């Protein structure tokens, strides 16, 4: 493969192969059962092959298809193990790896973006990518002044592929729901579509990264690499090293898990106040833990612009739910359009729905686990439960959708890490409105 498949028909066919492939394997499984194979053996084989196909198809397509898989890789923590486990490893691969493009294609993009004499800008340039992602891949190089740098090169056709994928994935949202049960796929895709189209010009990402790097310059907990150079399809930044959070999730020590979780939480809540921006692409491939104990943060293509920091309303809502003030909570929700006009909701029902989400703030340190997140997903996802009915009656105003999705994604990572986090202290310091009540 020399570049991303661009034609909508071609990409649609590959995406369609996911649900069709699942169906075919299930039919084949029935045949094996008729010949005497046990249902456990057949189910294990079907799910394993399906997981392999998820990675192969989404990874090869890159673009919006791969970004969709990366988003799902965070939310798998909310899904019961018997459903999520077969897909976990395949989806996790999408957090940091995908089939790379050939060197000649990389060189062509570099020449188009940096000029025909681009090799003179580098003392060394490694043609083998150090990492491959959804719309670009990263190469290690030595800049002309001797600095180690990371060179992010966008795949040819990424813009067309991203737009085509997001359009087609919306059409397939009901079928794709089966890949990650318990996740509301269509709203997720609609929000991802709006954010990810912003990532296609690396100059915008470079501006975002410069803002973050300035805000966290010299910080003892967070390191953001500085931008060296940028163009629409190529970005050069300082090279950084560390242990990816995906590796810590898989095999990290308790100390590493707790440290990574605390640093990630503090970055999530503090960044809007410090930089006016919220890092809006929370998956483990974008974070590393360095030997110096600092969190390394990369990939600033998707951000939420919050010049006044996180909304004060969210802090007030959180505090009212934490304190059990149901009537005041409903009044606030109604005034901020979280409850639509003419919708009748009982304050205690609303508090019952929201209170478990603020459970991490009741103690000095909270243990974020997959089981806790699974319980929350089961509670609000069971259509027969009162909490589910209350949740469907609430409204999420558009200006809060991205913040909500990012917070859920960050929480998913904390649960994957199985981390103990001083959430109350972090929220109290950085969430506007929380200490006002």
Automatic annotation (TrEMBL):
For this protein, the record's Pfam families field holds:
ABC1
The answer, when asked if Cytoplasm is one of the entry's keywords, is no
Q: Name one GO molecular function term.
A: ATP binding
Q: Quick one: signal sequence residues?
A: none
Q: Which residues form the ABC1 atypical kinase-like domain?
A: 93-314
Record's keyword terms, sorted: ATP-binding, Kinase, Nucleotide-binding, Transferase
Q: Which residues form a coiled coil?
A: none
According to its UniProt record, which protein family does this protein belong to? Belongs to the protein kinase superfamily. ADCK protein kinase family.
Q: What is this protein called?
A: AarF/ABC1/UbiB kinase family protein
């Amino acid at each position: 493969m020399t570049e991303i498949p661009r034609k909508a028909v071609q990409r649609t066919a590959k995406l369609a192969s996911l649900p069709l492939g699942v169906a075919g394997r299930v039919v084949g499984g029935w045949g094996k059962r008729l010949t005497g194979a046990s249902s456990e053996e057949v189910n294990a084989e079907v799910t394993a092959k399906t997981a392999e196909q998820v990675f192969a198809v989404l990874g090869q397509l890159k673009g919006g298809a791969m970004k969709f898989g990366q988003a799902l890789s965070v939310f798998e923590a909310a899904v019961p193990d018997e459903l999520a486990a077969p897909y976990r490893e395949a989806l996790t691969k999408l957090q940091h790896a995908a089939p790379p493009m050939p060197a000649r294609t990389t060189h062509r993009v570099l020449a188009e973006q940096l000029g025909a004499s681009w090799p003179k800008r580098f003392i060394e340039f490694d043609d083998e990518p150090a990492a491959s992602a959804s719309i670009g891949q990263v190469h290690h190089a030595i800049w002309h002044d001797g600095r180690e740098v990371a060179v992010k090169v966008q795949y040819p056709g990424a813009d067309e592929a991203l737009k085509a994928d997001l359009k087609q994935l919306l059409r397939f949202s009901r079928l794709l729901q089966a890949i990650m049960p318990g996740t509301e796929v269509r709203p997720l895709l609609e929000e991802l579509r709006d954010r990810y189209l912003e990532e296609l010009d690396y100059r915008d990402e470079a501006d975002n990264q410069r803002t973050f790097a300035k805000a966290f310059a010299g910080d003892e907990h967070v390191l953001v690499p500085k931008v060296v150079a940028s163009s629409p399809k190529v970005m050069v930044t300082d090279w950084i090293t560390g242990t990816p959070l995906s590796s810590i999730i898989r095999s990290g020590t308790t100390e590493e898990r707790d440290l990574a979780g605390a640093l990630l939480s503090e970055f999530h809540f503090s960044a809007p106040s410090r930089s006016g921006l919220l890092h809006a692409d929370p998956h483990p491939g974008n974070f590393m833990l360095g030997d110096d104990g600092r969190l390394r943060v990369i990939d600033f293509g998707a951000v939420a612009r919050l010049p006044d920091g996180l909304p004060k309303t969210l802090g007030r809502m959180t505090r009212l739910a934490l304190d059990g003030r149901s009537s005041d909570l409903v009044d606030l929700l109604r005034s901020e359009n979280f409850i639509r006009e003419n919708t009748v909701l009982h304050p205690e029902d609303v508090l019952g729905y929201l209170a478990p989400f603020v459970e991490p703030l009741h103690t000095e340190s909270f243990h974020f686990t997959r089981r806790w997140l699974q319980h929350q997903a089961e509670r609000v996802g069971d259509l027969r439960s009162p909490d589910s009915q209350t949740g469907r009656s609430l409204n999420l105003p558009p200006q809060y959708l991205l913040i909500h999705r990012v917070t859920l994604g960050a929480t998913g990572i904390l649960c994957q890490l199985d981390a103990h986090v001083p959430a109350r202290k972090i929220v109290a310091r950085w969430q506007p409105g929380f200490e006002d009540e």
